[in-house]
Specification:
Layout (H helix, E strand, L loop, with lengths): L8 H13 L3 E5 L4 E5 L2 E6 L2 E7 L3 E5 L4 E5 L4 H9 L6 E9 L2 E8 L9 E6 L5 E7 L12 E6 L3 H8 L8
Antiparallel strand pairs: 1-2, 1-11, 2-3, 3-4, 4-5, 5-6, 7-8, 8-9, 9-10, 10-11
């Protein structure tokens, strides 16, 4: 079934973008490398180590040579907002949605330039319309084979699950 209930594929993606961005707690990625965000906190974890801990007032960034976290109070706050906004790309074309028992699968492609077509995307939505996973790859281009799919899993934990995933404020501070 395509789109269903009179909704276009673009409307479904807009709803998914809104539902995902408005979730109180969001974790995108795997178990050892992920981005966790809430209204007041964004945490980047790579290979089990907190690389960045960002609140409205400060940013703590891991400095591997010094083996401590550098504290900064002057930084680009828009970057942390863009992490949540970038979950579903804005300029998608050819959006097709297929309904399933446990949600929807949505396929789309990005706007390319004059030399090359845009990336291909696939999204799985849960029954409430939020993202469960997304995947993207570069498309076939003439004799060049398409790229490998890179995927991201999305979780919506409770406050306790979020706290357990990100831990407490990192230390030591440089």
């Amino acid at each position: 079934m395509i789109a269903g209930c009179g909704e276009s594929g673009s409307d479904i993606l807009d709803d998914a973008r809104h539902a995902t961005q408005s979730a109180p707690f969001l974790i995108a990625g795997g178990s050892r490398s992920f981005t966790a965000s809430s209204k007041n906190l964004t945490v980047l974890v790579s290979r089990g180590r907190v690389r960045s801990w960002t609140t409205a007032k400060e940013d703590l960034t891991w400095q591997p040579v010094q083996r401590c976290y550098e504290r900064t109070t002057v930084f680009n706050h828009a970057d942390t907002v863009d992490i949540r906004r970038g979950v579903v790309p804005q300029d998608l074309q050819g959006v097709l949605a297929h309904s399933r028992d446990d949600g929807r699968i949505v396929f789309a492609h990005g706007a390319g330039d004059s030399d090359r077509p845009g990336n291909e995307y696939a999204f799985a939505l849960d029954a409430s319309g939020r993202l469960r996973w997304s995947a993207q790859r570069s498309p076939r281009f003439g004799a060049i084979a398409p790229g490998r799919w890179s995927s991201t899993r999305y979780r919506y934990p409770t406050r306790i699950g979020f706290t357990r995933a990100v831990g407490s404020r990192p230390a030591p501070i440089c």
